[in-house]
Amino acid sequence: MSVDEGQGALGRGLRRAERWRSSLLLLVLVGFAAYLMSWLWPPVQYFFSGDEPAALGETGAYKLDEMAHNRYVTITGLPALKKASYDQLWRSYKVYQLMGARVFVRERLLPREAGAGGGEDDGGYQLFYGEGRLLDMRAEPEYGSILEYFRRHTGFEPEAGPTWVLLQGVRPGDQLLYPVAFGVIALAGLFNLFLLIRRIFSIGKR
Questions:
Q1: Chain-centre distance for alpha carbon 78
Q2: Domain total for the chain?
Q3: Cβ-contact 55, 73 below 8 angstroms
Q4: What pLDDT does 111 receive?
Q5: Same domain, yes or no, for 80 and 142?
Q6: Same domain, 160 and 89
Q7: Quick one: 152 and 58 in the same domain?
Q8: What is the pLDDT of residues 46-61, one digit of tens each?
Q9: pLDDT grade, residue 158 (50/70/90)?
Q10: Closest listed residue to residue 23, CA positions, set 187, 185, 206, 198
């Protein structure tokens, strides 16, 4: 083999290795897009779930068979006095349990309530009417510390049965960001998938 032939073979090998590296990068990008889409899918489903909420009833007569993850619901009950608070995406929320039910409520903290810390005893036994998105609390990692707080301070046992949290005021069609982000990520993922397939076929031909 001549020097020129050796250099040509080396160049082809380097280009082939570079194509494989770029293909691997595209594969990672496609996988990351798929992960983000799976994470965004539940709120996207909820966004298009319709305008008619399922009525879960009131204290002493809750319809347990109507409680389902990612569902638009209404519920009436008496809030317990013990509350927890936390921050998420530059917003502050309070969480409390409805008496006689394994249902918690998440509401935005009012300005006068902000900075109350991890938990507080305030408010009173005033009838609560809730409307919003119902989630399986144990399936949402962000509520792990909240459940632990209520376990320590009220004796609540998350393992004893299904535990729900109502995102008060979150209605279908409200959070346009989720379907928009899902669409953008889906398009980016499909484009990278197209590039990946074309790159793999080009490698096979050379």
A1: 27
A2: 2
A3: yes
A4: 63
A5: yes
A6: yes
A7: yes
A8: 999 887 899 999 887 8
A9: confident
A10: 198
What are 30-33's contacts with CB under 8 Å, separation 24+?
A: 30/189, 30/192, 30/193, 30/196, 33/185, 33/186, 33/188, 33/189, 33/192
Do residue 36 and residue 61 come from a single domain? Answer: no
Q: Please, what's the largest Cα pairwise distance for the chain? A: 91
| Locus of tokens 């020129």 | 4
pLDDT reported for residue 113: 55
pLDDT tens per residue across span 77-92: 999 888 988 887 788 8
Q: 106 and 198 share a domain?
A: no
End-to-end CA distance of the chain: 20
Residues 6+ apart with CB under 8 A from 134: 56, 67, 68, 69, 70, 71, 72, 73, 164, 165, 166, 167
The residue ranking higher by pLDDT, 19 or 164, is 164
> Do 142 and 69 share a structural domain?
yes
Q: How far apart are CA 204 and CA 197, in angstroms?
A: 11
**pLDDT > 90? residue 120:** no
Claim to verify: residue 135 and residue 156 sit in the same structural domain:
yes
Question: Which residues are CB-neighbours of 59 under 8 A, at least 6 positions away?
Answer: 76, 77, 78, 98, 99, 100, 101
Q: Which domain holds residue 10?
A: 3-48+178-205
Percent of the chain with pLDDT over 70: 81
Residues 69 and 119 in one domain: yes
The three-point CA angle 95-100-104 to 5° equals: 20
Q: How far apart are CA 37 and CA 33, in angstroms?
A: 6
